[in-house]
Amino acid sequence: MDNLLKAYEELADLISLTDVKVSSELQDIFDMFAVRLQRIFDVHAIGLFLYEPESPQPFQGSTNLAFDQYVKDPEFARQVEEVYAWVLERGSNVFFPSEIEPGLNDLYIPLSVFESKLGILHIITPTDPLNISRHQNIVLTIFAAQISKSLQYLKAIRQEKEAYEQQLQQEKINSLGFILAGVIHEINSPLTSIAGYNDLVLQQAAQLSPDLAEVQKVTEFGQMIARETVRALGIVKSLLRFVRKQESHEFELLSPNAVITGALELLQYEFKMNQIEIVTDLVADIPWVMGDAVQLQQVFFNVLSNGGQALNSFMEQQAEPVPKRMEVRTWFDSKQVCFSIRDNGGGISPENLKKIFDPFFTTKGIGKGTGLGLSLCFKIMNEHGGKIWAENHAQGGAIFYFNLPYDVAQQRKRTPDVIAPVLEALPPKAVKAEPSAKGPHILVIDDESTILSLIDTVLSMMNYQLTLVSSGQEACAQIRERSFDLILADMHLQDINGEELFAFIQTHRPEAVASLIFLTGASGDKHIAEFLAQYGLKCLYKPFYPKDILATVQQALAR
Amino acid sequence: MTRFQLDIDALPTLPVIARQVLEHMNNPDSSIKDIASVVSKDQSMSTRILQLVNSAFYGFPKRIGTISHAISILGFETVKSLILGVSVIDTFKVREFDMLNFWRHSIETAALCSHIAGKVRYVRTDEAFTIGLIHDVGKLVFMLKVPEEYKLLLEKHQQQGGEMWVLEREAFDLDHAQVGAQIAQLWNFPLPFINAMEEHHLVSSAEAETGSLKQIVYVSNVLTNLTEENQEQSPDISQALQAMGLNEEELLDFLDNSYEEVNDFLNVLSS
Description:
The complex is a heterodimer.
Chain A: H1 2-18, H2 26-40, E1 45-51, E2 59-65, H3 68-71, H4 76-90, E3 94-97, E4 105-113, E5 116-125, H5 134-207, H6 213-243, E6 252-254, H7 256-273, E7 276-281, E8 289-291, H8 293-317, E9 324-332, E10 336-343, H9 350-353, H10 373-383, E11 387-392, E12 398-405, E13 441-445, H11 449-460, E14 465-469, H12 472-481, E15 486-490, H13 498-508, E16 516-520, H14 526-535, E17 538-541, H15 546-558
Parallel strand pairs in A: 7-9, 13-14, 13-15, 15-16, 16-17
Antiparallel strand pairs in A: 1-2, 1-5, 3-4, 4-5, 6-8, 9-10, 10-12, 11-12
Chain B: H1 16-25, H2 32-40, H3 43-53, H4 67-74, H5 76-91, H6 99-119, H7 125-134, H8 137-145, H9 147-160, H10 164-172, H11 176-186, H12 191-198, H13 213-226, H14 238-244, H15 248-257, H16 259-269
């Protein structure tokens, strides 16, 4: 009877607690209930695990009492996940001899409000559960109901807030788009004029006596103006991309895995150079989504490349840096496909976490980033009907989540995904190892010495043998003499143009046609485009960045 | 056909172990240990309870090795259902009948009762399970007491169709639901249990209080029968389903999906 009385007292106490004050802070709620719980039981540790069915780790430890030591164990999630899921599904309190703390007992309390499953309260207790009476068990159940109510309330507030913030973010980005569209137009024309007139100035100066010190000065200044104008135009170009509205009728059915591996391939070189290991866990039978492959690839590219940079600067500051790692995952539920990209860096400060999707927000320092990358990602995901958000992972590092809706009816049109093997990180220093003479042999032809030396610099870092020539004549001599695994050729050599070079190769070394890649700056030239299309030739457009060169070469050699 | 006389005194009594467990269940101060100590005394009962607990039907991710853990994991009420189920089987040892279909129907009804109870927020889903499991216990009484006549009746039912309980009334003046209710009374079951069992064939049960045990058992029984082939005509339960906010498709899917689990349960129970 004593037991019964105590149980009723607890019950009354709990009921009176409900409406008094429900805090909007999870920690407050937890503390409030933890104190109560300690009265019913001897408690060794309490952990509150919120259930998020969409997440790859559906049970997230949120707040706890002396439970950290267990959560930190990498085996922890594997040990408890199934039991948590079972308990939550079944909906009743479960006791079991503890596996994570032998000698003590685990008490799992499912938290749910009607059909909405909220989480698990995991208690490790020395109390022998076999001695718990039915009444005490009922008290526990009511206890769970009260926590659940508070959690549900908290969740509702949070969801409302989140929806509001998403909307706010969207409005911010939309209105920015309007303003930018106007500004870009106003800036684009004068910039173009500046660049044009500056060219004229340089041409005029070139006609004067080049030995005059004044002329040299003017040329030097003019070149500086030219350089800076090009930079400004580059920024305008990237802003234009931001303003452009993506129409959904341009969408096509595409494989989420292909999009994300595409982005990874572009970054392969950069990650290798920085010794960042990429771990992928992609679901092969993931449903396909409607979208713009280029734009979506850009989303992942931006997040991956940002992550890589953040990881580099974080590890540089560490006294004892650990190997850099990024994890890329895909999975799906009944409505959407999901992605996550996680790094093992320092995470994002709570203050910055609120701002990272804001236009012009950047932590990279002036001149290093426009601060538009993540806003653009946000905008693209939004236009695809999806979402992007970032969190700090419980085990360290930042994690970005993405989801995209898919249409079940369209899945019949998909083809099976082929998942590329995981990109391996090079062992430290291996990048600069002596090139062995056995790598693929590449012929590079370009009469612009800067381009030639750029390609030389980039490709020499990998295990390639290079032959560099700066004229069509030399090129033809080389091609006649030996075979190459790959030929990179400028289309506009002074002594021979691209079509002539092509004709020469076709005649003298027809098997090399397949391994020919042209380089050109004339991306809009119709004649060139037609020529390339006619023979199915590959082309790399200038201006290109080192990673473009590498990606193109790697792809071509892979065939 | 002979008139069937139900002799209450000659009805099988519940095994001691089930009686003791029920007593403990009614005592709020009883703990898992108390009940476990009762069950552990019966070796064969313990073995079967453990088999059930470890069956796919419950699907607990770890192996459960002792009765007390079984109780702490499944809860008092579920263990009570299991003990009752096993006791009923042991009590009514009817060899001449095809018991597999009987128990399949009972387990399916039980699973569905518990599922619906969860959906309509009936407080005790495990209680609904128990009553679903033994709702047809009256049939067992017929099989035990008047096996020859009942066999003929089953054959008649097979040939002519119609409702079994109507045939029973014609033959014996009593149907299995009424007999079952008497058994439940004899075994000191709570009144709502007895009522739900007694009226599990009456169309009026469809209109019982929304979400009541009676309505749950009625609807579950109709739906479970739907999945069994011999049902040409089934009572209209659409209004009851609507009132409870249930979707017939979803419930039939549930039955479909729990086939394996039910089989597993069945194997243990009838072993």
